């Protein structure tokens, strides 16, 4: 009858195969967050991005649930236009996530350098973003923080979505989950209403507007100012010699009422818009289309990070007495860890025809 022994790894076996910090050569920091840094690292002739998070600061900011949520989502997701996780481990003071390295840097870095992009370049960016959003949304996941800083280029000039820190599996009553970045946050999220995938398409509209004009559609200095701007007028693209199709695309994405917004019925509605007609989605997915915006060099990151000589810092011991980070360790291709589906059949049924 075959081998009847359990294939589940014991704690000692798990520790044996768990990645260790000593395996990675730290090169330089390529990004920073409230309680984290992202390093470019090298391991066995391959480059990775290593996200370093400080336990004491995570606990101080009461962000342990968000950190664990991102870690769980990353384990279950794998897509050509996401930044995928390759491993996760922890020490007594830090959490680490090993991820794909994207040498092109983020869209914000290139917006600051270029000022704005052509309609052709922007359309290509949108195609990349939509393929990732289609995957997320058809798996019932709302990203909720689509912005230039969370869109990163590979060496071919294709964009990938990263940072699932505030992403959530959709549920009907989510009005209390109002995290996001002002300037890209949909009105329904900002007004603390229930929301669906349409919130990510509002953010996409903001990004297209910004890529084409060099400015965000709503430029208030505070969340309150931005909310007042959003509620006071409907933004439209200025007349810059752009096609009527892209003007309509942006206008429909930036509709203040989610029910009227392009994408409220799901990703396929957006991908079938006239501005994207004749797109060969399969060729783009296979990265056979030459990117219209070229990535030059291998260090497309803010010089304030790249030029610093840094090391992993030591922080006060945080023993995780309440097991806040239990289960954080992840071994890629471990079937036992990937066996449980994150979605219930009930949740799938709820969104079988609607995305809100």
UniProtKB/TrEMBL annotation:
Task: Give binding positions for ATP.
Answer: 51
Q: Which UniProt keywords apply?
A: ATP-binding, Kinase, Nucleotide-binding, Phosphoprotein, Serine/threonine-protein kinase, Transferase
Phosphoprotein as a keyword of this entry, yes or no, is yes
Q: Tell me, what is one Gene Ontology molecular-function annotation carried by this entry? A: protein serine/threonine kinase activity
Q: Which family does it belong to?
A: Belongs to the protein kinase superfamily.
Q: Which InterPro entries match?
A: AGC-kinase_C (IPR000961), Prot_kinase_dom (IPR000719), Protein_kinase_ATP_BS (IPR017441), Ser/Thr_kinase_AS (IPR008271)
Domain (AGC-kinase C-terminal): give its ranges. 277-340
Q: Which species does the entry assign this protein to?
A: Paramecium octaurelia
Domain Protein kinase span(s) in chain numbering: 24-276
Output this protein's name: Protein kinase domain containing protein
- State the superkingdom: Eukaryota
């Amino acid at each position: 009858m075959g081998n009847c022994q359990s294939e589940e790894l014991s704690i000692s076996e798990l520790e044996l195969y768990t990645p260790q910090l000593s395996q990675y050569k730290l090169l330089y920091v390529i990004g920073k967050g409230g309680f984290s840094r992202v390093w470019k690292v090298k391991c066995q002739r391959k480059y990775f991005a290593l996200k370093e998070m400080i336990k004491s600061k995570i606990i101080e900011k009461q962000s342990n649930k968000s950190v664990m949520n991102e870690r769980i989502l990353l384990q279950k997701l794998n897509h050509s236009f996401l930044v995928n996780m390759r491993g996760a481990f922890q020490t007594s003071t830090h959490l680490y996530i090993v991820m794909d390295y994207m040498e092109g840097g983020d869209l914000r870095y290139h917006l600051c350098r270029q000022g704005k992009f052509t309609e052709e370049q922007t359309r290509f960016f949108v195609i990349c973003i939509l393929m990732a959003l289609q995957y997320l949304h058809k798996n019932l996941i709302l990203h909720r923080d689509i912005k230039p800083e969370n869109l990163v280029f590979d060496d071919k000039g294709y964009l990938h979505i990263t940072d699932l820190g505030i992403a959530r599996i959709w549920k009907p009553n989510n009005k209390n989950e109002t995290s996001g970045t002002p300037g890209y946050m949909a009105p329904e999220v900002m007004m603390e209403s229930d929301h669906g995938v349409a919130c990510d398409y509002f953010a996409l509209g903001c990004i297209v507007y910004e890529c084409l004009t060099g400015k965000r559609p709503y430029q208030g200095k505070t969340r309150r100012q931005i909310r007042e701007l959003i509620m006071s007028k409907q933004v439209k693209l200025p007349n810059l010699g752009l096609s009527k199709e892209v003007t309509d695309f942006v206008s429909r994405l930036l509709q203040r009422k989610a029910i009227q917004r392009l994408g409220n019925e799901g990703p396929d509605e957006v991908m079938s818009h006239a501005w994207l007609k004749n797109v060969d989605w399969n060729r783009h997915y296979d990265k056979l289309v030459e990117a219209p915006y070229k990535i030059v060099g291998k260090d497309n990151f803010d010089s304030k990070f790249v030029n610093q000589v840094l090391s992993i810092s030591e922080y006060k011991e945080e023993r995780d007495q309440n097991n806040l980070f239990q289960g954080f360790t992840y071994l890629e291709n471990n079937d036992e860890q990937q066996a449980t589906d994150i979605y219930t059949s009930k949740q799938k049924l709820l969104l079988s025809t609607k995305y809100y």
